[in-house]
Amino acid sequence: MALIDRFLTRAITRGPLSVIHTDGSTRSYGVPDPAFKPVTIRFGPGAERAILRDPSLGAAEAFMDGKLVIEQGDILDLLTLMTGNNLWEQGSANLMPGPIRSAIDGVAHRIGRFNMQRRSKRNVAHHYDLNDRLYDLFLDADRQYSCAYFTDPANSLGQAQLDKKAHIAAKLALEPGMKVLDIGCGWGGMALYLHEKTGAEVLGVTLSEEQLKVARRRADEAGVADKVKFELIDYRNVSGQFDRIVSVGMFEHVGPAFYRAFFAQCRRLLTPEGVMLLHTIGRAGRPGITDRFTSKYIFPGGYIPALSEIARGYEGMRFFLTDLEVLRLHYGYTLEHWFKRTVAAKDQVVALYDERFFRMWTFYLAGSCVAFRTGGMVNYQLQFSRSRHTLPITRDYMFEGERKLGLQAG
């Protein structure tokens, strides 16, 4: 039996997955299961060897290069089948690279985690300074590029992103006249929302020049540029005092070596009664490494933290963790919307870039989707306060705040 057959026989027990090999032979793996759509793939020269060497990167590059062709189903169906047979909670290592490859990756990961300021800006530009039109094709109208909040899985993407902003705003417990710092403000949607709903003055900071242009334009068009300001600045260089700090989808770019510096800076920037809300992707398990596909093609320098790593970042700073919420499936729902929108806009994406980029982008979205559906990824929302007395002692104020902000109940 060929090595690829052994690998797939071990990895796929439910399916079916049909594989057309380079010699023209066909073999199926896994018994039919209504939980999965049948998938048929065709291997081109070199694809099998690449997958055996490193299942994640090998499959990604074979797909991107047209050496792994999906003839029945799509890349989301394929990755759903593969990961659904190897659930994170079952502890399977069938889809992990071998021990030698893992050791090499571990060394490279430790080197790449040092996000000095110059490298941080370059890493951000790699992803967020892509053609502006690309993000319009798959994000919601407000360009929320982070996990949405689904009170009902059937909600639209736009509604879920609006509810995410309300969910976070309620946890910030904002009052009129407060000053807010938005670290990693993206295209400005959260900052503009907070001002619109509460009247707060907001400073948004980013390292993406393209995002900065859009955010400033939006503030100008809304006539609130004097109240909602945006700057191209590293969080380490921000000065002043803020009543509230919010950071959504930025912590993944900080790097573990700088977690303590991040939390120390946030604590310095908060007033004595200040509150902070951190929204980040996280590992449900122990610390790990960034997979090679993501670090090479999507988020160089990025890293998803384990909860233990986040805790080590702020412990000993006299910084109260006042609330912690784990969003398990919400990002899976979000990413499925993004994937379907990207597939529907294939012609436009190819026109902006090319077929290989389109395949790379859909692999990224599909792979991320299954990481939350069946893998070990979740979203954490951590609330901090400098004072033990600032916030109410029960969570009722959050639900009341959401009601006032119009969050849609599931």
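(the above was protein one; protein two follows)
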Amino acid sequence: MPQQKDLAKNSFAIYFNQHKWLYFMIIPGAIYFILFKYAPMFGLVMAFQQYSPFKGILGSKFVGFLHFKTFFTGSDFWMLLRNTLWLSFLSIIFYFPAPIILALLLNEMKNQIFKRTIQTLIYVPHFISWVIVASITYTLFNTTDGAVNQALQILSGKVVNFLGLPEYFRPMIIGQQMWKETGYGTIIYLAALSGIDAELYEAARVDGAGRWRMMWYITLPALKPTIVIMLILRVGGILSTGYEQIFLMRNALNVSVAEVFDTYVYMRGLVNAQYSYSTAAGLFKSLVSMILVLTANWTAKKAGETGIY
């Protein structure tokens, strides 16, 4: 046994010496995660305390699961869960397939100059901040001088309050996501498509297969592992709808459908200074997200697909 341990140590030392520069490259990323991801997790203790900024985490009184009980039994919980799940469901149905479809269409383009021009143009919205996107949306859809409402007034004589009516909030959020992120989301799928052996397409052409058959029997099966991994990650983020976009688009008129977990934690924690209560709500969201990722990964592996790990 001691000889085996010494042999294992020597093997690791040799391996480390051969790849030491790779280990050194890990250091900045490891420091980032330790400082900004793991160290702040100590603050989760506040969820079980009646936290006071004057007493600090170490001096505040422990109250157990009181804040969780208040959160789960309150009327806000079901409203938040309903609004968050609706947005996530619509995002999975409409936004998730959009980059896949666009990547397949780009992959069919034969003119490389035209293809690269289109790719560049559809990547641009990703680099526009949500503040600018919200401003553009307001400029287009406001009831006073918005271009959309001016056109509606000319055609029908009516004006629609797209920004205030609750029934238009969810379609507008999904539309913004698709416009801003669909193009950039094609990158990972185009990378997967570039790894497909060109000889498979040549053999299919020899057998008389058209573009649709090659897409169905070659391209989509090659994309399936990537799609599964991205879907697992998306399922894990079902309760994370994004704070900035929702916060910028919510107002007093549509708050009944616009309030989600992310904005609720901000409003209760930072605006109303209910630190322990908001920490409990955020911890619940994070735990559910972790369970969903693990469950989706387990299901994918049971179905014979490649999971995240």
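Reviewer note on protein two: The mean pLDDT is 86.
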